[in-house]
Amino acid sequence: MYLSNTPKKIVVSLGALILLAMVLALAVKLIAPPKFYLPPAEINPSNTNHKNQTPIIFSEQSLQWGLIVAHRQSSKKLTDIREVTGGGACILDADGDGWEDILIVGGSGEHRFYGRSAWWSKSHAGNSLWRNKQGRQFEGITHTSGIPTAKWPMGCATADFDNDGDKDIFITNIGPNQLLLNDGTGKFVDGSEMAGMLDNPSWSTSAAVADYNGDGMVDIYVTNYLQFQKGSLVLEQHSGYADSYSAFDPSLYDSQANRLYSNKGNLKFVENALSVGVEDSNGRGQSALWLDINQDNRPDLLVLNSRGAPNRLFINNSTLNPDKQDKIFREDTAIYRVASASGAHSATADDIDNDGDLDIVISSPAGAPPKLLLNSYGDRQPKENTKSILSDMTWELGVASNAKLYQHGWGAVLADFNNDFFADLFIGNGASVVNMDSPYATVAQPDSLWINRGSQQTVDPYPKPFAKSVFTANQPSPTRAVVSADFNHDGNIDVLTIQNNDFVRLLINQSPAQQSWIGIELDSHDYSPLGARVHLKGTDSVTAKRYFAKSGYLSQSTPRLHFAVANNKPSVNIEVDWPDGQRTLHANLDTGLYWQLKRDGTQRALPSKKTTQITTDPLIQFFLALDTEAQIAFIQSAQRFVDRQKSNWQTNVANLLQAIFEIGDQPLKLAVIEATYQLSGEFALPIVKTALDQPQKQLRLSAVKALKHLEHELSARWLIELTKDSDPEVRCEVAATFEHFFAEEEAMIKHKRLSIPALVRLLDDSDQTVQICATRALAEAESYRAVMPLAHKLSHSKSDDVRINSARALGLIRHQSAIDPLLKAIQGFPQDSVLIAHSLIALKRLNYAELDRLLHSYLYTAPQKAIGQQFAIATELLSGEGDAVFSHNAVLSHFAKVTQALKQQAYQHGEWVVPTLRLLAKLKLPETKTYLNRYITHPDKHIAMASLEILARNYQPQQDLESWHFYRQPVAVKLNLLGSLLANGYRAKINDMQRLMAQSQTRQLLITHIQQQGSEQLAVLVGDIATNHWAAELLQLCIAQKAPMLKPTHNWFTQDNIKKHPLILQALACWLKTPATKITSPPINWLVSLLHKDDHQQQFVALQALAKHPSHSADQWLIRMIKDRSQQPLLRRYALEQAVKYNKIYGLELAFTLAKKPSAVQAAAIDLIQTYGTASKYREILVGRAQNPQLAATQRWQAIAALLKQTDHSIMDYLSP
Question: What is the DSSP letter of 806?
Fold first, then answer.
């Protein structure tokens, strides 16, 4: 009975327990709702207006800020773990001007396989320091700062290590680390040896700084990674590299112990990690973070380790007694729940739920979400031995997402990006796997942003808060280090991400202002402020934050504290509890500013952003006053805007061009884009990038062509994004640009292959022209990834052009898997002959074993009905790309009996004669012309006419046209042949031209050709105008000619012709186009008589003829006309102009004299000097006009343009007072 009732009791008990659990869970939910929610966020500006939520909007602005710098570390391709883990960055005010600068740890450049530096990479490698220019731009100051670039750097940290009041730098390396001391002006010297830090070189990754023992001096904790040696017994192919695409496995390598450098003052450090208990010798350290996890006013240490080793948390039990410092740390990893052996790169800490204690987020590798550890210590007062408890709330609070488990997290920062009192989360992602398309790059992934919604209980999918142009799912990046700072002092926290073997990204926070704010920096000069507690007062609640160095993976963010201020109060009070026990109150500090607070109770406001209007520049004002033609000429002179001897001339030119682009219409914008060709890449790119974002197609096309010219690595991702452009012409131009990069071996070496997936997608574009552009680019890329998609296009496309280009691409890629698709594409007749030819060419490139048999079947044993296609295939094989693949003999051997029949004039093969002759003409074989000459008399008129046509298209008569029996042919045949000859560059002899002019049909064709192409023989062809029936037509053609004519064979200006020939004036105009000789020149007295005619056209022709005339008396008449004030000003100006244009020695002399004095011809004289004058005495007049503010801007520009041709001065030199 008892036994039989037991199951029922168990069931009842279980049911009761389940019901009780459900009730408790509901009660917890109702009584204690979560204070915040962190839904995953993406980038999309169109959806940010949810109720009670401030959007976060980032804009990538590395170009606008001049921060064009990349991490570079590889050995031709990525071959080991050292090359895929960097780089880093640190934020510091290097020069003490109040603006935070950036140190980029940029890698060691390119190396040969076993580590020796490659000579060509030295200018692209190493660390770099970037000075913040008043929150508007960054300026590279590496070469003047003393920052070393010759090591193999990994990460950095920054603090005042010698307590002299300025920020020093610590750099971790693969090898000895470096301590760089700041002299206070942003110049650094190496103090590593003096500080005792050259011992035991390791592979150091990150460094974290704090005053762990409370002695007022900053100590340094260094995480060390692996005992790695390239080519060691643990082979790279077993751990992810050596031509494989799997991830590196650090657990296969031995670890290196971490190091703690305790600062003893006077720049002396002692390594004592083992003695104080934080060595973590088995850790494979990635980064470390100092934080006060238990609120006992002592910095604890969280160490993040790679795969195969757990994270470690060391609790600080130190006292202020320097004699009792041994084993002062105890490990509480298990209690605080931070241990994980799956690998971690970085941790970040902040009070996520605003309950008064620090919570932690740890970035995780692929397969696991970031770990969010919520601290339950709350706002209780700390008690001795009281432990805080960290609870893993990753899934509960929304940080985890199944859709994001593929992401591999690296650097992480917590910051209040939208100024709403709650810390948001940013994590940089990127796989350590080598990109299968580009061996210089790792696989990129989108970075992640979670926005903290505080105590809101809604769980709706939150809108995407980022600007469209930043890193969407379509713009992934290989991010490593992530740092945050407010670079422009606008109260919004910005983000800088460092990409592995790629360009850094500067994400400027443009979120709308919602609350007032205040920023705090601490400065105690002789005693480290790290660990101080800062209280914000004067608001509805007291807010406290700890002042720590915010270290991360290979990086350190700004230590400055940022407070959102409730109710937009104009001022607040700040109270600081300094690490030495001193407390200071700083009252009535204005909000909306950053303040530097000192331990003596004083403070100073740090500078705020200053803006300048570039349109006030005198060059811009001058530009706006020009007419359109002058504006374009002005833009084309971009290199001459400013003095090129100054180091920043390109910056100034780029700024001016950018300003013109913003205010100009489309023609001016196009001129600006073209003018960027005069600048180097880093200065041209911001303008070109702006053009890429314009709605006008022509601007985008012009910008793409500019990027093709620049060949800059940074533009690869922009061009990849443009493969989705709405206009097919733009998409095609982008594909053509990548085709150029692939064809040029040294163009965009690092990033061009990242375009291959996008180009493959273009094979399915709706526009067939775009498909063809994509096939041509993939052909140059020679990527195996494209073989199957191209094979699909070859077999399924309805466009012959697409199929032909697909076949061509498969041949150039040279992968054996393409053979079967190529064979299937050309099986059977009829097929497009060009497709068959290109498929055969492709098979030849693929070394197809049966090619000779296949070739024979198409060129010899093809069905009789396919004879035309047979010859078309052969012709295609022996032209263009086929000519480079097949030898003539290889193809002609299949035509042996045909060519033999030609040699024997075996007319029974008549149906083969014409196509064979066409083929032989294509080959330009010596005997071909002989064959053709034989066949022009063939009794079969079809063969005879075809032979003549082939001759006309490919050859020119050695004698006259009669040698080809031209004049015996029907009119239609003559017209066709003459058209072919003219198209082939035919230059008829005089007797042929005369015969052609004699027949109306051929005359019209010849005249049309001369109108289009010109002919230097026209003046000769005119002959004697008294007897030539076509003189009128020929003279009109002569007058229209731009090129000079041959001298006439007759004197047109006889007394009889002058008196009564109606074409005499046309003959004079034609004579102006011929070489002047005394025999053929017109009489002076007749030219002078024309000057007295009341006809300006005749007068102008006469003045030009006098200027051209070879006689001295003509010069005298011309000078007399120029000087004679009684003459019409119009004639005087024209006479002066002709004298100058015909290089008369007196021309510019007269212009110089007339330009000095006011007269009717002064302006014309000045214009001529501007155009033709070169001597220094003419320059005086030009300078006077260029600097005359009373003149119209366009007139001044004409003088400046003339001066620019003669001097090295800049435009600004002539505009300056």
Answer: H
Alpha helices (H) along 819-927: 819-825, 833-845, 851-859, 867-877, 880-885, 888-892, 896-903, 910-923
What is the Cα–Cα distance from 748 to 733, expressed in whole angstroms?
17
Provide the residue count of the chain: 1217
**Radius of gyration of the CA atoms of the chain, in A:** 41
Q: What are phi and psi of 269, to 5 degrees?
A: -120, 145
Pairing assessment for the beta strands 390-392 and 269-271 based on DSSP bridges: unpaired
CA-based nearest residue to 565, from 547, 585, 596, 541: 541
Residue 1155, Cβ neighbours under 10 Å: how many? 26
| Residue owning tokens 């600006």 | 672
- Of 664, 757, 750, 741, the C-alpha closest to 707 is 741
Three-state DSSP string of 1086-1154: HHHHHHCCCCHHHHHHHHHHHHHCCCHHHHHHHHHHHHCCCCCHHHHHHHHHHHHHCCCCCHHHHHHHH
Single out the residue of 48, 44, 133, 61 nearest to residue 94, CA to CA. Answer: 133
| Alpha-carbon span 1087 to 1085, nearest angstrom | 5
- How far is Cα 379 from Cα 383, in angstroms, rounded to an integer? 12
Which residues partner with 605 through β-bridges? 595
| 3-class DSSP assignment, residue 741 | helix
Task: Measure Cα distances from 828 to 170, 465, 796, 832, 849 in Å.
Answer: 73, 58, 16, 11, 20
Instruction: Give the whole-angstrom CA distance, residue 1175 versus residue 1156.
Output: 15
What count of Cα atoms within 13 Å lies in the side-chain half-sphere of residue 329?
27
Nearest-angstrom CA–CA distance, 1060 and 934: 53
Beta-carbon neighbour count of residue 913 at 10 Å?
23
**Which ranges in 955-999 belong to alpha helices (H)?**
971-983, 990-998
> Tokens for 687?
């303008």
Quick: pLDDT tens for 772-800: 999 999 999 999 999 999 999 999 999 99
Cα angle 236, 237, 238 (rounded to 5 degrees) comes to 90
Question: What is the DSSP code string of 510-565?
Answer: -PPP-SEEEEEEEE-SSS--TTEEEEEESSSS-EEEEE---EETTEE----EEEEE
Q: Where do runs of H (alpha helix) occur along 131-281?
A: 142-145, 192-195, 273-276
Tell me the pTM: 0.80
Q: Looking at this protein, which amino acid is placed at residue 64?
A: Q
How far is CA 995 from each of CA 377, 418, 961, 967, 1017, rounded to the nearest angstrom? 110, 87, 10, 9, 15
Strand partners, 110: 74
CB 37 within 8 A of CB 476: no
Contacts 24+ apart (CB under 8 A), 921-930: 921/950, 921/953, 921/954, 922/875, 922/878, 922/879, 923/878, 923/888, 923/892, 924/954, 925/888, 927/903, 929/955
Q: Show the tokens assigned to 217.
A: 């001096």
- Rounded Cα distance, 875 and 340, in Å: 70
- Tokens standing for 1016? 């230097």
pLDDT in tens, 935-987: 788 888 788 888 888 888 888 787 778 878 888 888 888 788 888 887 777 77
User: Are the C-beta atoms of 907 and 938 separated by less than 8 Å?
Assistant: yes
413 closest CA partner among 467, 353, 481: 481
For the chain, count helices (H), then strands (E): 43, 41
Burial class (CB in 10 A: 0-12, 13-18, 19+), 274: middle
| Biggest CA-to-CA distance, the chain | 152
Per residue in 191-201, pLDDT tens? 998 888 877 78
Say if residue 881 is exposed, middle or buried (CB neighbours under 10 Å; 0-12, 13-18, 19+): middle
Contact 375, 359 (CB under 8 A): yes
Asked whether the beta carbons of 117 and 50 are under 8 A apart, the reply is no
Token duo for residue 436:
């299968």
Helix, strand or coil, per DSSP, at residue 865: helix
What is the SS3 assignment for 505? strand
Average pLDDT over the chain, rounded to an integer: 83
Residue closest to 767 by CA, chosen among 726, 738, 807, 808: 726
Joined together, the tokens standing for residue 1158 give: 């006011």
